[in-house]
Every structure is written in structure tokens, then in C-alpha cells.
Design a protein that fits this description.
Elements lengths: L6 E6 L6 H9 L4 E5 L16 E2 L1 H8 L4 H8 L24 H6 L6 H11 L6 E2 H16 L3 E6 L11
Parallel strand pairs: 1-5, 2-5
Antiparallel strand pairs: 3-4
Amino acid sequence: MEYSELSLTIVIGTGRCGSTMLSRLLQMHPQVLSLSKFWNVFRATGGIITSDEMSGEEFWQRITKPDIYSDGIEVAGISHDEFVYPADRGRFDPAAGVPVICRVLAQVTDDPDALYDRLALEVPAWPRRPMAGHCRALFAALAAMFGCDVVVERTGASVNLMPGPR
């Protein structure tokens, strides 16, 4: 599936608005791949989502940086039901840093490390394009891997990522 053919829905919401429940309900449909908290992958790079073109390697570097916020919560032993990366059996240790994309992948597979390895072979070789194109290509690649026609992205408190009135 080409990313231009992908049916993509982005659920925008404030924190504590029920978007997690909605995401979990949509994930039950066999044709829907529901990615939770994808936009948080850019928090490790200052939350900047640029319109500049970048190579696949540059995009991969951005989405694989550790998120010290999420890692710190786990290292401190604070329970959080949305942090599902299997640190007890996974390759990455929160004390050293978990690639932030692994936290997204752990929402859709029991083996996020294997999916990470698969993407690591593909994404860095992608051509230069704007970050939005890389995001859509990643969503399309994941949808194809899981046999889904629709991708829903849901990040709580994502309202601040949307453009405001000009």
C-alpha cells in the first residue's frame, strides 16, 4: 500500500477526554491499526514537527531517540497503564533509554523489538521528503505489515499540535 492510498484518521483531543478508550475500541476492528501516542515520538526532539525535507535516516533518528520523560517515569517505578513496552523482557532498558518508537510499537504487537528491527531495515533507506510524508509512509508500512486498511492515530492532549487560526 502506498501512503497516498492510506485512510488515515487522527483523533485530536484534550487530556482525559476518553481518547484512550476510543483508540482501544477502534483497535478491536480487524481492518484498523490504532497507533497510540505516536506524536510523542517527537517530544524527545523538542516536540518539533517540521515541514523541511529530510532523509529516511534523519527521520529514523528522530523517532528512535529515547524519551527521558517516559523512561524516567518507568525508572522511578511509577505505574502508568499506557507504558506497555516490555522492559522486563525487551532489549531496551529504560535506565539507558528506550527508543520512543518502541513505545508506540508495543501498543500493537507483543514483540516491539522485532518490529523495530524490521523498520530499522526499511525506514533509513527512504527518500528525502517532508516529515509528514515520512509519517504517512510509516503509517502505511505498519498498516501493510498488520493487514489493515485504516490507521487511527490518537495522542491525548494533542490539541496543541494542531494549527490555530491565522
